[in-house]
Amino acid sequence: MAKRPLGAQISHLLKARGVDVIFGIPGVHNQEMYRGIEEAGITHILARHEQGAGFMADGYARASGRPGVCYVITGPGVLNALTPIGQAYSDSVPVLLIASCLDEVGFEKGQLHQMNDQEGAAASVTDWSATATTAQAAYGLIDRALGEFETKRARPKAIHVPIKLLEAEAEAPPAHRPMMEAAPLTPDVAEIAQVLAAAERPLIIAGGGCVSCSDALRQLAKLCGAASFTTYAGRGVFSPIDPLHFGSNLSRPTSEAIIAKADVVLAIGTELAEVDIWRPDLGHKDTFIRVDIDPAVLTGHPMADIALCADAGATASGLIDVMQGGGTSLWAAQEVSQARDSWRAEIEAERKGLPEIIEAVQDAVPDDVMIYSDMTGFAYAAKDIWQMDRPAHWHHPFGFGTLGYALPASIGGAIARQGKPTLCIIGDYGVQYTLPELATAVELGLPLPIILWDNGKLGEIEDSMVRAQIAPNAVIQRNPDFIALAKAYGATAVEPATRADIAPALQAAFAAKGPTVIRLTPKLAP
């Protein structure tokens, strides 16, 4: 390939490495990155805000299993994208941010989009952030990022390229040299197998690191008579029909007493972070085993009696190979069923009428639907009572907890799924963070149902203030006419009058030629 501006070469390099879609917004500082996009055969999705572009890249990556890539401009473009990049870091999502940057900031002052330390700002929410000072460095950093997405814990990377370097003629990037795949390491699971085999009440807690080894974990649990929980990120790893599966109810206070009954707890592929259990301690009293690909997790709280740095799938398969079967399990399907029923009743008491609305939505969606939810009461309740029968099909901004995630992320997911059903669940406050991205969904003609839970206030914050004996303040907002607003963007908008109207509204939305906003309120009639 002849010499051409580096910005164009980067697009060709990305295409050669398997990138088909880029999310972003062009600007005067990064326009050279757009010179080669169409020529390379990459589809560019125009977001309405860099935050939306980052969330779209996140949603695309979660749905496709491939890196999500976004192009942003110097300074404010980078800062706008750092919220979704922080979310991707928290949830281990492979997102690559490529940004233009100023050529010099130490001496020159007063430049357009100037920041003191753009690279350092991005470093705070990425695995690494680096500035390329030569064309070869840009190519090498991109290959390094894409290679690490495949071989390490997937976390976002940021690459900054000076404007003059983007404009300068550059040699073609090198041919792709695939990384030599090391033979998969077989973890030493003998000690874990021995402990599980001797246990009378083994318990497996599976996290988001287990979504690719659901079958193996279910087989392992059956082999040793283990009961199971999943974190929210691990929902679907175990099936709701598994008789000893407690569900994703770790955050329910009474789960602590259940975990205390276990004589061995195997936590696999999970940080067991604050957002997983929402209490200081898990509740275990006896042997605690941790398995994770990230060594930093193994030294965190709660401390493990046995810690193994290994892939969840390789560990589960290794245990199946060496275990001859466990002892007599003392877990009973009846106690599991009773616990799940009691949690369902608790949620109904806490959120009167909401579980029935959630179940009406659940009954109306296709089995293979992929869901993107936001920080809203509807999603909080649904994560406990909506049992998933397959992993990696419900995506939520867990650790970083960003409002406005669901709409742009579901757009990215719908693009990746190419016609397979995708659903957005978002609250009336959160949707206003990224509402303009509705225009992108309209532009693309995406058949995307958007469940808009409108309770007219920051309900979760109001409840928290009341529990803390703080007079609720600044929790009631004046909402726009969401139906009229959605139609102004060119979307379809409906408001079911009864719960029975939810199913036909969703069926029509999945079959539509564009997005449909479905406004639901707490006053929805039975």
Characterise this structure.
- The chain has 526 residues and is α/β, with parallel strands linked by helices.
- The protein folds into 3 domains: 4-170, Thiamin diphosphate (ThDP)-binding fold, Pyr/PP domains (Rossmann fold, 3-Layer(aba) Sandwich), CATH 3.40.50.970; 190-337, Rossmann fold, CATH 3.40.50.1220; 351-520, Rossmann fold.
- The protein has 22 helices and 19 strands.
- A 6-stranded parallel β-sheet has the order 3-2-4-5-7-6, sandwiched between helices. A 6-stranded parallel β-sheet has the order 15-14-16-17-19-18, sandwiched between helices. The protein has a 5-stranded parallel β-sheet with strand order 10-9-11-12-13.
- Strand 18, helix 22 (502-511) and strand 19 form a beta-alpha-beta unit.
- Helix 1 packs parallel to helix 6 (135-151).
- The radius of gyration is 24 Å and the shape is globular.
- The termini are far apart.
- The model has no long low-confidence stretch (mean pLDDT 95).
**Order of adjacent strands in the largest pleated sheet:** 3-2-4-5-7-6
| Oligomeric state as shown | single chain
State the fourth-level CATH superfamily of the largest domain: Thiamin diphosphate (ThDP)-binding fold, Pyr/PP domains
Poorly predicted regions are none
CATH class of the largest domain: Alpha Beta
Q: Largest sheet, described in full?
A: 6 strands, parallel
Radius of gyration: 24 Å
User: What is the CATH T-level topology of the largest domain?
Assistant: Rossmann fold
* DSSP summary: helix tally: 22
Strand proportion, as a percent range, falls in: 15-25%
What helical percentage do the residues reach? 25-40%
Averaged pLDDT, please?
A: 95
Question: How many structural units, i.e. domains?
Answer: 3
